[in-house]
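Justification of computing resources. Each target in the renewal requires a structure prediction run like the one illustrated here; the chain below, 122 residues long, is used simply to show the kind of job we budget for.
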Amino acid sequence: MNLSPLWVGFLVAHGVDAVHWSAIGSARAPDTALMDWARENGHLVLTHDLDFSALIALAGLSGPSVVHVRSQRLLPAQIGTTVVDVLRVHHETLASGAIITIDDAAARVRVLPVRRVNPDSK
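Resulting structure tokens:
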């Protein structure tokens, strides 16, 4: 809900299957409902909201994959080509489960589930 529905048309025009949450569920639904739907239907979550990445990492889940746009440029005309390029380059990793953060400088990939480092382990 935090990214424009314009993303759907842009992504579809670039060969990416996409749907905006507003066409599926309630704007008042908890983030977990969106994540459950995405996981059950083989979709990733494209978001500007930090909550999705945090929920997946903290729960130790292996999906759904999350692509997190960390930029003030949030419209497809501004950063869409970068997002599509990242989706293409990391397609296999996203299919297996990942959190990808895209900012104005780079894209960072974390494979799911995110494992915490135990300071007592050697």
